[in-house]
Structure formats: structure tokens, C-alpha cells
Amino acid sequence: MRRWLLRRSGAALVTWVSAVLLLFFVMRLAPGDPLDRLSGDRPITPQEIAALRARYGLDQPLAHQFAAFAGGLVHGDLGVSIQYGRSVTALIAERLPATLFLGGAALLVNFTLGLWLGVQQAVRRGRAVDRWLTGLSLAGYAMPSFWLGLMLAWLVGVRWRLLPAAGMTNPLLAVDAAFGTRAMDLLAHLILPAVTLSVVSIAATMRYQRRAMIEVLRFPYILAARAKGLPETAIRWRHAWRNALFPVLTLFGLWLPILVTGSVFVESVFAWPGLGLLAAEAVSTRDYPLLMGAALLVSALVVGGALLTDIAYAVLDPRVRYA
Amino acid sequence: MASATLRLAVCASLFVPALSAGGLAQSRDAKTIVIVTPQQATVPIPTMMEGAQSATTNQEMADQLFLRLAELGPSLVTSGDKDFVPRLARSWSRHDSLTLVFELDPRAKWQDGVPVTAADVVFTFERARNPQIAPKLAGLLRHLTSVTADGDHRVTVRFDRAYAEQFYDATFHVQPLPSHLLAAAASQPELPHEFVANPVGNGPYRWVRSVPGQFIELAANPDFFLGRPAIEHVFFRAASDPEARMNLMLTGEADAMDNVPAPPSNIQRLAAAPDLRTVPVPSPVMGYLLFNQRDRTDHTKSHPILSDPAVRRAIALALDRQTMVRATFAGYADVPYGPVSQLLWIRKGSPHAAGRDTVAARRLLTAQGWVDHDGDGVLDRNGQPLALTLSYPVTSEVRKQLSLLVQEQLRQVGIRIDIARLDGPVWNERRTHGDFDIDFSSVVQDPSPSGLTQAWSCTGGTNVAKYCNPKVDSLIDGAIAAYSDAGKRWQAVLRQIEADQPAVFIYASTYVFPVNRRLNRVSFHPASIWLLLREWSAK
């Protein structure tokens, strides 16, 4: 097991380093320049651009720029954002919690409500509930998240005034407000973006869970359990559901990077101050240091998600260790 | 039973925060307002707003924290000193044609209680004039030769030449910093982190806190020597998405917001809300079709089509700019005469821009040999079709709509326009490197007409289309130097540019600001939108 884990982790590290290399050079080869943009709407002279280019090291050959980036990375320094004029590490550290909070809430809904609904569909296969839930989940899956977000913000936030239409906290809340008051405020702001993210993504979880559960419920040991007179709830959750979780584990690994990347539109529509929005801005402004910081994090989540899934499989199914 | 409990829990989890949110929205008092803006200020510190940090948001925030020596008045005339109002300087005098002397108001204090002195002004100008620290400011202040202190309250500014905007240059670009807090970092581009994170200014508002990505809180400066602002707390809330900003206005979570984004139906939507009203303000934004004078692939050669002034003139005549602008902006823009936004004072007295005249346009093109020989609807000459590419950034809805109208109107006179809708950075790169036929440009102008030098003179740093007429350069030089008849001289510049037609000037837009009706004495300064916030009050 230890050798397998080392081998798998080594492969993950190599994949991540390759991704970093590729990202660095592809990003610089892409058309557009972070400083050319400054000559757009508000005039800035070529001399000023040259001075700024020197300040950010963009006048150096690509190999030198990469050496500087790699040297900084070793020490945990991702450079200074061109757009914000601040340390990229600090910017990411500021924004990451909001994204993890939103993504975490969406994942929680996905992997609690989604799994539960998937199981309910499987045990009621072919009945009206199953058909309705299938229809509804697919409708949610087909909806663009930004559109759904706009509709929810308008209907629930603007028309009904039930929940805040945008933002993460109420700025008018006193700094020394009680924990409970602040938690309720945060929750009120979280509901609409989390629901938007979940509605769009929960369909996949439900479909995977439904399919896996239907297959497991056909196995002879389930029939044997029923023959022994075990209660249906025990058969469903203790015997069938545990074995039907494997395919969903794969999905969990895939969802991890979506914690960051999947919420870009939702963060924008709800003015949620997360990393997704920051990364999108970095793309549109070609803010190389910030873009690399965000890309490093996302690639780490992709590789890490896959690794975690493999490890979970190995722990739950010993046969996988020798594959 | 379990199912009923679950249902109850779900309902409670939705309704308790909902009730809480509803309650919080009502908790604002008459001394607190929320303003929603597209971006959050990151470095609102004078001499540090360079490059990407030169964003308007930073300058607007700096205007709440730091005062200038004098403020540009409502008529926005940058020539001479008649339209300026005292701020840190209570008076000024001219020693000779190259020397201005400012007397600082002895009541002015930094928010830590230390008096503002001439040493602060000298310290800040030294930073601003250093190209290693502030390349953009150093360029703007290039005609200042020295800034010296004479005692605690007198500052002398000297120039290398006589020109009408000396006063503007000495007051508009630089807001003094507290030298007693920053002396150790005088020659460093970056100021200490503690100061940047919690700036100490001398303006009507003081910095309270910044929550990254969410909002900045300011509080009224109780010792502000020009009078304590009526509004005690101001929150500048950030929301990059226009829909999110409008939703915050419509729900009453924000009291004011920046310019309403296109389309004009957004203005109608906000104006229809009973709690809101809209305030139009002249904007510094001007949009124009820029003709490349050089071949886009070989810059040593003239452009095969657009280097001909008759073709450029024909394109201008073929466009019904008034109708296009009315359709796109619903009255919140006009067609400028020359490259002037509504912010520039030199537009006063300009004639109307030429209207559409397709017959004259066709006549001009025919005279130049452009005829539809093959009957395909597109004019051609020596086998070359009169076909051009019009490029604009994908982010601009206004330019997208106008481009389609331009394409259709030019088609009617036999000119084929291929539209290139480009990713912002790609568009910028191509524009900067002269890789375009017609570029749909948009510029945010400073109040000074001398900024026209950059784009419309032969050696202008942002003259990407390589338009060059020495006569225009000479007229601009004369207008910059003129004291008494600057307005007339600038009009001559505009007339010559219009005659050369290096571009078709399409729109000079008006900003529209929605504000909550509970706000009183609301006024906006076109050169810095929230500058007059200290005069506002709320019910």
C-alpha cells in the first residue's frame, strides 16, 4: 500500500509540475499583454508602459521570467499582481475562503440532498416520483448558472425582498455584532448563490447515485438480505447504499476543482468576493502573476482531487491497490 | 414524522435568514449611505496610482481622503486659474509668467492632528516628479522645474515655460501626502504597508476599514477644516456585474451607484423604481472610428485605402451619427465635433458635426475611382474591393450595437465592413501595434485639452493610427500656450482635425447616476464623480 501510495503521489506531482510549466508558457504565448491594455481607454504613453514593463520584469526574456517565477514559487512567493499591485499570495488568501465557503456549501447540498434524492429515485424506479425528479434535475442541469442566478436574484432578492440580492455580508452590520447575527447574515447572503450552484450541479450526483443504486439493488446479496427478513431501510442504507457510493466518489474528485472554477459566473452575478471572480478578472486583464497563482491552485485541486479519489477507492476496495 | 421534521428544518433554514436579511436592510440611518461601484479601490494613495492602479476607482477614493491645493470648478475650464476653488491653498498669486505662489490654509490638518505644511507639498511633488516612482505623473508634471517651501505655509512652483494650464498642472494631478509619516520612504515607489492599508489623509472623510472584494468604509472627518460632512458613514460597495449593482439599488441595499450600463432600458428600469431618481452628468467618455493611416501589415507604407482623405471623408458623410447615437443612448449622448468628450470645456461654441449625405459620399468615392464594376454591391478600384475591417473589444455592448449600424450604413454606399469582435487584450494589442483598418476606440479624457496632443499630434505617444499634420501640431502648441484666446485657438484645432478626418467622432456620452430619493443636495463633479459627497445629506 505504501509503495502504491508513493508511486501514485509521485505521478500526481509530476503531472502538477508539467501543468505549471505548460500554463506558464502557454499563458505568455497567448495574444494580449497586461500593459498594452493600459493604453486603451485612458491614455498612457509608450515610455510609461516601458517603465512599468521593467518594474514587473516583463522586459526580461521568457526563460528569466520563468526562473524568477520558479524561484519565488519555491519560497511561496507568487509575485505581485499587476492589476492590484499587491502580493498574489495575499490576494488568493483573502479570496479563497469565500470561494471555499460557497463551493463547500454547494458540495454539501450536492452530496447530501443529491445522494438522498438519487437513492429515493432508485428505490422508486419508474414511478412518478422518479420521473418527476429526473425531469427536474435535468432541467436544472440544462440551465446556465448565470441565467438561473439572475432569475433568482431578481425574483427572490428584488421582487420578493426575501434574501439579499448580492454580496457576502451586509456592510452595515456592526463590526462587533454578535456571532449569531453575523452567522445569520452570512447564511442569508449564501442561500441564493449556493442554490444556484447546486441546482445546476446536483443532477449529475442524482443520476450517478440512481444508476449505481439500481445496479446494486439487483445483486443476489440484497435478495438474500430480504430473504433473511432484514428491514427495508437497513437493506437500502446499510447494505446497498455503501456499495453504490463508488461511482459517486469519482464525481467528488471531479467536483473539487469546480469549487473554484465553477463559481465564476455565480460569484459575478451575486457579487460574491471569491477567487473565481478574481481569476476571471486576471484572464481579461492578462494579469500573469495573478493568473498563474489561480491556475496553480486549480491545477493542484484537479490533480489532488484525482489523487484523493484513487486513495479513497484503494481504502474502500483493496483490489484497486494492485491495479 | 421524520419527513415532517425535515420539512420544518428546511423551511426554518430558509426563512430565518430571510427575516434577518429583511431586518438588516432597514437598519440604515440618515447619516449612513451605501454607494455601489464596479471595482473596489486598491491603492487610493497619491503618487502610487500608476499603471493598473491609475484606475478611476482609486482616484475617486483618494479624492475623499486627500485634498488638492485647489479644486477644478464646475465649468471645468483648465486654462488660467479663474475656475478653481481654494482647498488646501487658501489663496495664490503669480510672481511672474513662470512662477506661482500658494498660501496654505493654516487650519488644514492631517487626520492624526498634525498640521498640513509646505513641507508636505514639497515632499509629494518630489515623489510625483520622479519617473522612477510615478512615470505617468512625472510626464504630466514635466514643465515644473521646482517646488519649494518658504516657511510652513507658502509653496512656490516654478515652470520651464509660460502656458495657460500652469495652474491646472500645479493643482489637479497631485494631492499632498503626510511627510511626517512617510519621510523614510520618500524615494521608494512603494509606501509603507501600514499607510497603504490605513491611509491618513486631510480630506472630508477618513479611512475606517476595507473588506477585500466587498466594501470600503469611510467616516466623516470631524476636524475637517472646511466643514464636517453631513453624512457620517459612507460604504463603497463593490459589485463588478452591472445586474448585481442594479439589484442592490432596486432593493434599497445601496443609495447611489456609478453610471448605469448600456442598454438605455436599464436607465428606464431604475428610473421607474419609486425610491430612485436618475441624475445625468457630463462624462469624460468619447467613442470614435479611428482610421489607420498606415498599412496594417507594413507600417512603412501608407494604408491602401484609408490614407486617402477623400475616402475618410466619404465614410464620415455616409454615417447618420445623430440617429445612431439617439438609437443607442436614448438621448444620453451627443455627436461631438472633434475628439472632445462632454468633459472638455473647449467643446463650448463648436459647430454641429456634419450630418449624413450619401450623395456627397458617393460622389467623393466615384471621383477617387471607386465604382462598382462587377455589380456585387461593393465598390472597387483596379480589382481591389472597398472592404475594411472594423475592430472593437468584445466587452463593449455600445460599440457592438454601433458597429452593426456603421456596417449597414456603409453598405448602403458600397463599402463593405467586416466586423472583428476581439477579446479585450487581443484588441488592445492589435490597436497598440497598428494592426487594424478601422478601430472603434473609446477614450476616457482628462479635463485638460492638452491631452489631445497624445493621440492627435505627429509624435503623440498614443497616436496608434499615425495621423500626422504639422499644422495641427502647430495649432495645438499655440492653443496650449495661449492665455487670452485659448478657447478660439482650441476651436481652430478641432476644425483642422475635422477637416483632416483622421477619425469619425461618433459619441460623447452622458453618465447617468441613479440615487435614492432619501438623499438631498446630491451633485456630481464630472471630473471626479464622488468629489462633492461631503455636501450631500440624507433623510
Structural class of chain B: alpha+beta
What kind of sheet is the major sheet of chain A? none
By DSSP (H or I, 4+ residues per run), the number of helices of chain A equals: 13
**For the largest beta sheet of chain B, what order do the strands appear in spatially?**
13-19-12-18-16-17
Mean of pLDDT of chain B: 92
Largest contact between protein chains?
Answer: A-B, 69 and 70 residues
Spatial gap, N to C terminus of chain B: 51 Å
Strand content of chain B: 15-25%
| Poorly predicted tracts of residues of chain A | none
Fraction in helix of chain A? over 70%
C-alpha Rg of chain B (nearest Å): 26 Å
From the spread of the alpha carbons, the general shape of chain A counts as globular
- Write down the Rg of chain A: 24 Å
Which quaternary structure do these chains form? Answer: heterodimer
The biggest sheet of chain B amounts to: 6 strands, mixed
Q: Give the end-to-end Cα distance of chain A, rounded to a whole number of Å.
A: 11 Å
As a percent range, the share of strand residues of chain A is under 5%
Q: Can you count the beta strands of chain B?
A: 21
